[in-house]
Design brief:
about 5% helix; about 725 residues; 3 helices; about 40% strand; mainly beta; single chain
């Protein structure tokens, strides 16, 4: 076994630099009074904006940052721009044929001197509703009439040397622009890049996206890289922030890259502890030098991968690293975590495992090291009690489908490699393909119609909860699609129904406090879902970092039998909008449902409890936590007579609960004298059991008095040595 190199410290990342009322009411009253003096006029319905968030295509786009979707997203700060040639066009699909009454063009500097507005009911045959050869640019409001499902701006002469560029392309008319059914399927949007082995300059495209995303920790770019089945030679796909790479086969071995999918930490001087929000799935890799590098931290899943060689989980130079998660994968060679402080591997196969630092957990992993916590710090379960792999997009011939794997009990090893995987295939036309600019009303209408959701890469601002009310609904995100509640609502609510699958997206708290961000089941849920549980997989939550954000409780699980399979729930310790009260978030995860299982639970930095477990018969396999860095003093975290809020608290009323491989770390940078009475708190009952617990003081930045309740030795000094408990009670 290899320990981390002596020169490589293992403590976690340091916190980075922290970076109209009365008058309006009086004006409204005055206007209302004046209106009483105006003779009545026949009431007329205002035209409805039909185009926002609807499917849109264009003849070209200037670069990856100016897609057609940005012209219908309702944001006057984003735009579509075309190639610098004539003619060019942009077309919006309103969903059904409606009566159009107005088109508004909000031009950027590069506008059209000559263009036509064209209507079509079938997308093939076009009629001209308006034309000009003397377009003025700026904002043009065109009163046009006609019936159309498709509306097109067709530019024939540019006013500048550049292409055509629209901040917004708005179509108004009667109805909802989809009075008929919302259409499922369609294209995957501008930020999904699909490659086949004959695609020219794949490496150049990968490099350009990486250059843009390498340091964009809190940027708005989102990308999904999809590789059709086949063999690709001499590629190195370096993944930056909000970049996901996937194969489009039904098996990982259908898509082979003779090369690497690499995450390293050169952007952060060899420190990998902030390599968040990226993923690799459903590919076979044959690394160039025999070993693939995947040096990640939280929210960076490695799923359904076949590495025909070894896997190195540390950055070049063996700097700090803090990950991570592997599931349903086969690594033929040895996995070397080296400086990785913790890791969880589920239902996989490995050729070997070299070392541990603090907390390495395995369940259902062929080739895993034997149970030996705390030295080496291996927690090993032969099987995973219940699991169901994450849904994934694939190609069946030329048709896109989503495969939904079947539930397994007492699983061990991968779901693939021994014949066709067990599960269900759903055609893409059963999904509303959500694209940037879509609003919550349209998303909810699609759900109510019976469609599933496929979020394409982008940032989605919503003003009402997304309501998932139908059993077996799939909500799948590509490229870390991000949902932001702008006005203090809950981002997503799931009814107490069977078999909902939530996977692959990020919820980012908005500036107005939300009581919750994700609710699985309403309060009081009691239905039995053991035969067909809801799963929450690679669903990440963030409060602050990208800007001010607040939420009282991030994720609430009320439905029984829910499986939480890899989540990172994070109150930001660095970035924008960060401070003890600035991004206030008291609670990370609250579990009220019974028989809930968490496999791969990462929850960090909350003002009070990071995890509160109130349901019976809960189980957690692997937990990673840091207490809030920025607690200003001891009084700020005082919990009655208890010093500090536990990272993981099981309610006194609970009779049965079990956990394996759980760790909590403190790094109190604002007041290093703060003490936590314990990292874990639970009732002392025969049915409440914990295995392999640890607490760590990172370089003496605060201390723990005990591990769980009053059991376990205190941490001390600056040694960054864990205090452990192998069995409780």
């Amino acid at each position: 076994m290899h320990a981390p190199p002596p020169h490589s410290p293992v403590f976690r990342r340091p916190a980075a630099a922290r970076g109209r009322g009365l008058a309006a009411a009086l004006a409204a009253t005055l206007i209302a009074s004046l209106l009483l003096l105006v003779p009545g006029a026949p009431a007329q319905a205002a035209p409805t904006l039909l185009s926002q968030g609807k499917p849109v295509t264009a003849s070209s786009q200037e670069n990856v940052g100016t897609p057609a979707a940005d012209a219908v997203d309702g944001d006057n700060g984003t735009r579509w721009s075309s190639a610098a040639s004539d003619p060019q066009w942009i077309r919006v699909d309103l969903g059904s044929t409606v009566a159009v009454s107005q088109v508004v063009l909000r031009w950027e500097t590069a506008y059209a001197k000559a263009y036509r507005i064209e209507f079509s009911t079938d997308g093939t045959n076009w009629t001209t509703a308006y034309s000009t050869t003397t377009g003025p640019g700026g904002t043009e409001t065109l009163n046009v009439t006609g019936n159309a499902r498709y509306v097109r701006m067709y530019g024939t002469t540019r006013a500048t040397q550049y292409g055509y560029s629209l901040w917004e392309f708005q179509v108004y008319g009667e109805g909802q622009g989809g009075g008929g059914p919302i259409q499922g399927g369609g294209d995957l949007g501008p930020n999904v890049l699909v490659f086949d082995p004959s695609t020219p300059d794949i490496q150049g495209t990968l490099d350009r996206i990486f250059q843009q995303q390498e340091k964009a920790q809190f940027g708005s770019g989102r990308y999904q890289l999809l590789f059709k089945p086949g063999t690709y030679n001499n590629l190195n796909a370096q993944l930056g922030f909000y970049t996901s790479i996937s194969g489009l086969g039904l098996s990982p071995d259908d898509t082979t890259i003779n090369g690497d999918v690499t995450v390293d930490a050169g952007w952060f001087n060899g420190n990998a502890t902030q390599n968040f929000w990226r993923s690799a799935e459903n590919l076979a890799l044959k690394p160039v030098n025999g070993t693939n590098r995947w040096a990640v931290a939280q929210a960076a899943p490695f799923r359904r991968m076949h590495v025909k060689g070894g896997l190195n989980l540390a950055p070049d130079g063996y700097g700090w690293a803090s990950g991570g998660f592997i599931a349903d994968s086969k690594i033929d060679g040895t996995v070397g975590p080296y400086s990785q402080q913790q890791w969880y591997t589920r239902d996989s196969s490995v050729g070997g495992w070299t070392n541990s630092v603090w907390n390495m957990a395995f369940s259902g992993v062929q080739g895993a090291p034997a149970q030996s916590f705390p030295d080496p710090a291996y927690t090993t379960l032969e099987t995973t009690p219940v699991s169901r792999e994450k849904p994934f997009l694939y190609l069946d011939g030329a048709a896109y489908k989503v495969f939904v794997p079947a539930k397994r009990t007492n699983a061990r090893g991968t779901t693939w490699g021994n014949g066709a995987p067990q599960g269900q295939s759903l055609p893409l036309d059963q999904f509303y393909v959500v694209k940037p600019g879509a609003n919550a009303a349209t998303i909810n209408a699609a759900l109510a119609q019976g469609l599933n959701l496929l979020f394409t890469p982008g940032v989605y601002h919503i003003d009402q909860p997304i309501n998932v009310n139908r059993a077996n609904t799939v909500v799948l995100g590509l490229g870390l699609a991000t949902i932001v509640p702008d006005n203090g609502v809950t981002a997503m609510k799931v009814a107490d129904v069977d078999g909902v699958k939530l996977a692959g997206f990020l919820i980012d708290a908005g500036p107005v406090n939300s009581p919750t961000l994700l609710e699985v089941g309403p309060a009081g849920s009691a239905a039995d879902h053991s035969a067909n549980p809801t799963t929450v997989q690679d669903v990440f939550v963030r409060i602050g970092g990208a800007g001010p954000g607040k939420a009282t409780t991030s994720m609430v699980i009320n439905s029984d039998d829910t499986i939480i399979d890899h989540t990172w729930i994070w109150r930001a310790d660095h970035g924008a909008g960060v401070g003890w009260e600035t991004n206030r978030a008291d609670y990370g995860l609250r579990v009220n449902g019974d028989d809930v299982l968490a496999t791969g639970l990462f929850v960090e930095h909350f003002n009070k409890y990071d995890v509160e477990w109130n349901g019976e018969r809960g189980r957690t396999i692997f937990f990673q936590n840091e207490k809030a860095y920025d607690a200003p003093n001891q009084a700020a975290i005082q919990n009655g007579s208890v010093k500090g809020y536990a990272a993981y608290k099981v309610a006194d009323s609970v009779n049965t609960h079990e956990g394996w491989g759980l760790g909590s770390y403190c790094n109190y940078t604002s007041d290093t004298n703060i003490r936590q009475d314990h990292g874990f708190q639970a009732p002392v009952k025969p049915g409440v059991r914990f295995h392999d617990l640890l607490v760590v003081s990172l370089g003496g930045m605060g201390q723990y008095n005990h591990v769980i309740n009053s059991t376990g030795s205190p941490t001390s000094g600056t040694s960054t040595i864990p205090s452990t408990v192998t069995s409780f009670p």
